[in-house]
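Homework help board

Subject: predicted structure for assignment chain

Our instructor gave us this sequence and asked us to write out the predicted structure in token form, then describe one feature. I got the tokens but I'm not sure how to describe them. Can anyone check?
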Amino acid sequence: MSETPSRSPLGNSFVIMDMKGNIRVFCCLRPLNEKEVVEKERNVPSSLDESTIEHPWKDDKAKQHMYDRVFDGYATQDDVFEDIRASLIYFR
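My token output:
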């Protein structure tokens, strides 16, 4: 089974289906606000890579969560759209 998206015609529309499943989960981390910057807070959770976030947990141990894609606090709406648009349904 291929993991690349495939297009299947459905009447006048095309549905792009991901071979991993029909539901994809994306995570967008927000940047610190002005108050948090002044108080020298740090980002919690933090992005480890493009699919994993990490946050403090019990006994100061880190807990990780995986997503189809993680966008850091610097990602714009355009960045997010460009990356996920292949997962959207297009109608003609």
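Reply (TA_rk): Your tokens look well-formed. For the description, you could write something like this. The beta strands are 6-10, 13-17, 26-28, 46-47, 52-56, 62-66, 69-71, 90-91. That's the kind of observation they're looking for.
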